[in-house]
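task queued by scheduler; priority normal; single chain, no ligands, no partner chains; default sampling; output format set to C-alpha cells
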Amino acid sequence: MKVHQADFSKGKVSTLILRVSLPLIVAELVNLLYNMVDRIYIGHLAENGSLALTGLGLCFPIISLISAFAKLFGSNGGAPLCAMERGRGDHREASLVMGSSFTLSVVTGFLLMMIVLIFHRPILYAFGASDSTYPYARDYMLIYSIGTIPVLVTLSMNAFINSQGFATVGMITVIIGAVLNIILDPILIFVCGLGVKGAAIATVFSQTVSCIFAIAFLRGKSVELKLRFSDMHLDLHRSLKIMGLGTSGFTMGATNSVVQLVCNKCAFIWGGDLYVGVMTILNSVREIYNTFIQGIGGGATPVMSYNYGAKDGERTRKASDFTLLCIFVYALVAWIVIITFPRTMAMFFTQDAAMLEASVPAMRIYFFGFIFMAFQTAGQQTFVALGKARHAVFFSLFRKVIIVVPLTMILPYFFGIDGVMLAEPISNVVGGTIAYLSMRHVVMPELRAMKKEKDAASASSDT
C-alpha cells in the first residue's frame, strides 16, 4: 500500500491540522456507525422496538467504559508519547511505547471480557436495566464482550497509525469495519431474525476485521515505526508513563460511563423506561455531533505533541489556538441545527410517538451549552498533547464527576425530569471555561519561553 505520511514539523499549522483531522473526522463518523446503525435498526423493530432500543442503550455506558481503556493505552496515552519521542528523534523508545501499548490492550481486553461474561447481570441492573429491558441488554452485551480484545487493539493501534502521520490509513481501518457492519446488520437482524443478537454479532465480526487490518499495516513496509513482537514486553516504568498520561482520556471515557449510569438511573426514577430511551437518543445525537470535535482534537494532538517534543513553542501554540477556533465555529453551527430541528434528530432513532414527544424539549435543554465544548476540548487536548497528565486528569474529573453527577441527582428535586437534562449544559459552561483558562495560565508561559530560546539560538547561529 502506497501511503502519504504527514510531516508535523513543516507547513502551515492550521492546514496541517485540517489535513490530518479530515480523515479522522471521517473515521469518527464511520466508527459511530458501528453502534448508531445498531440503534437505528433496533429502534425500528416491528415488535418491542422501543424496549429493545432502551435495552441496547443500557449497554453503551459499559461499552464506553471498555473503549476508555483504548484512550488509556492509545490515543491519550501511548500515541502522544510516541509522537513526542519521534519529535525528539528517539525512534527506538517510540517503538517500545507502541509495543507496550499493544500488550496492555490485549491483556486488559481479556480481563474485561471475563468480567462482563461472569458479572453481566448485576452490571446491567446497576446501569439501569429493568426486568423488561434486561433480556435485550443481556443478549447484546454477552456477544459484544467476546470482541473486547479486537475492539481495544483496533482503537489503540489506530491511534499509533494516526500519530505517525497516516491519518488516511487510520480512516480506512475504521471504514472497513463500518461497511461490513452496515451490510451485516440488516441481514442478521431482520433476514436471519436474530434481532439484538444479530446487531452484536455484526459489530464483533466487523471490529475483528478492522483489527487484523491495523496490525497488518503496522507490521508492513510503509510505516516508520513497526509493530514488532520484540517490542511487546512490558517495562514497569514505561507502562506507568503510558498510563499516567492516558489516565486523562481514560477518566473522560470512564466518567462518561458513570454519567450515563447516573443519568439512566435518575431518568428511570423520575420518568420510567420511556426516559431511559430518551437518554439513549440524546447520547446518540451527542455522539453524532461530537465526531467533528473529536476529529479536530485527534488531528491537533500529534501535531502539538511532535512540535512540543521538538521544542517548537510557536507551532505548538498555533495548533492549540486553531483547535479552539475551529471547534467553536463548528459547535455554534451544530447547536443552531439541534435546537431548530430536535424532532428530526429524534426520528432517526424512533417512531414511537410518546418517545418523540418527550425527546424534543429534552434535546433543547441538554444541548443548550454545547458551544462551550470547544473550550473544554481545546484545553483538555492541549494538556494531553503536552504530557501534562495531572492537569488533564483533574479537568476530566472536574466537569463530569464534580459537576454533572451531583447536579443530575439534585436538580430533579427542583425541576423534575428536566433536571436530569439540565446538568449537562451547566457542566459545559462551567467546566469548559475553567479548563481552558487554566490551560492558558499553565501552558502559554512555557511555550513563550520555548519560542524565546529558539529565537535566541537562531540569532546566535546567524552571527
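post-processing summary
- The chain has one domain: 13-456.
- DSSP finds 16 helices and no strands in the chain.
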